[in-house]
């Protein structure tokens, strides 16, 4: 596609439930990033994929968070046992490689009630 | 520890009133300072990348400059459509493509 696509755009879930957030990057972009943005704050790094492998997952807050990119294209961010503090906008970005600029998607707004 | 601080947190301007946004940073081995624009409900939109002190880049009413400790985003004769949150981010030499963002400056331009 022409841009980075994230689905769903909004997700409301109950505390304790499992959620999956999807990111479809720009075709041919090898690098894919997940960030989390709370209200009034800048994006906070979660994980970075180069191809199929997670090159840097140092930003994942705990083991409830996990992300995959099995074929080097679409990525899924998975959150287990959601907590109210997980409520935020989850942003995905892709780039042609480490030295190139990012293109962000519009994000998934996750609300845990 | 790498850190980015933006000021002011919010800025209100009248149309045509020029001003500057500040981004102060500490980073080990800067490999790029980035400016993004973010509209409500949207992801950040890339504006500029600066790599070395003294570098400047321009786009329409925006001009970004870089020193060894900070970057400025100058807005000349702003228009209401320039209203957005402006984000600054840095990439260091040791952490791949990861960006460290500041908290942003929310700019409002009134007609």
Q: Indicate the low-confidence ranges of chain A by residue numbers.
A: none
Number of helices of chain A: 0
Percent helix range of chain A = under 10%
- Termini separation of chain A: 33 Å
What does this structure look like?
The complex is a heterodimer of chains A (113) and B (111). Chain A contains no helices and 11 strands. Chain A is mainly β. In chain A, a hairpin with a 2-residue loop joins strand 5 (44-50) and strand 6 (53-56). The mean pLDDT of chain A is 94. In chain B, 0% of the residues lie in helices and 59% in strands. The termini of chain B are far apart. The chains are: A mainly beta (113), B mainly beta (111). Chains A and B meet through strand 4, strand 5, strand 9 and strand 10 of A and strand 5 and strand 10 of B.
Features:
heterodimer; A: 113 residues; mainly beta; globular; B: 111 residues; six-stranded mixed beta sheet; 11 strands
SSE layout:
The complex is a heterodimer of chains A (113) and B (111).
Chain A lengths: L4 E3 L2 E4 L5 E6 L6 E7 L6 E7 L2 E4 L8 E4 L6 E5 L8 E8 L7 E2 L3 E5 L1
Parallel strand pairs in A: 2-11
Antiparallel strand pairs in A: 1-3, 3-8, 4-5, 4-9, 5-6, 7-8, 9-10, 9-11
Chain B lengths: L2 E5 L2 E5 L4 E8 L3 E9 L6 E6 L5 E4 L2 E5 L3 E6 L8 E9 L7 E2 L3 E6 L1
